[in-house]
Amino acid sequence: MRRFRRWCWTALALAFLGASWFWDILHPFIKSIVDLIPLEGLKRAIADFMARLPPYPTLVVFLIPLIILEPGKLVAFWLFAKRQWLPGIVTYIGTDVLKLAVVSFLFKTNRDKLLSIGWFARLYIWLLRVHDWAREQIEPLKAAIRMALQEAGLTRTRGGFLRKAAALWRHARRGGFSEV
Q1: Segment 79-119, tens digit of pLDDT
Q2: Is 23 a member of any domain?
Q3: How many domains, in total, are found in the chain?
Q4: Rounded distance between C-alpha atoms, residue 80 and residue 97, angstroms
Q5: For residues 57 and 177, which has the higher predicted lDDT (pLDDT)?
Q6: Are residues 77 and 111 in the same domain?
Q7: Residue 81 forms part of a structural domain
Q8: pTM for the whole structure
């Protein structure tokens, strides 16, 4: 039972870090999208409008991108139902990236004001702690993966993805990750 709980916590940590990693990868891309928007006047007007709002109405403004852009996912699912895979994927990803770009801009503009809300600041700090906890949880797994790849003679520069995946599969089949 203890090993099962450990694997469940590791899976949860990996899911959390996966989302965090995805954000870390997309953040520069999303920032460049926000920076490409040639409407500096509009961005300034939004920032000025948001600066005049108290903290709680500022929080409500975050629902606007959700309300406006979430129907784009319905369009994507409709395209999936019509077996239009590529347009569906592009619509789904485009909607999510645009929503993240807008929310990122709003959060960057209003971070201090939002952190003045007590429960929001506690939630933000808690999420940062969960992020650190997740990194600690997967550290033994990362060390075991590095060791398995070293034993197989596959370092960062040697071997492609498939060779590394096959080596990790062989290591796992021999019970090599049971101590993690």
Answers
A1: 999 999 999 999 988 888 888 778 888 888 888 998 998 99
A2: no
A3: 2
A4: 19
A5: 57
A6: yes
A7: yes
A8: 0.62
Do 178 and 150 reside in the same domain of the chain?
Answer: yes
* Cα–Cα distance list, 5 to 12, 126, 144 (Å): 10, 22, 19
What are the residues whose beta carbons fall under 8 Å from the beta carbon of 144, sequence distance 6 or more?
A: 176, 177, 179, 180
Q: How far is CA 135 from CA 8, 19, 50, 98, 121, in A?
A: 15, 12, 34, 28, 21
**Rounded distance, CA 144 to CA 24, Å?**
24
**Enclosing domain of residue 177:** 1-18+125-180
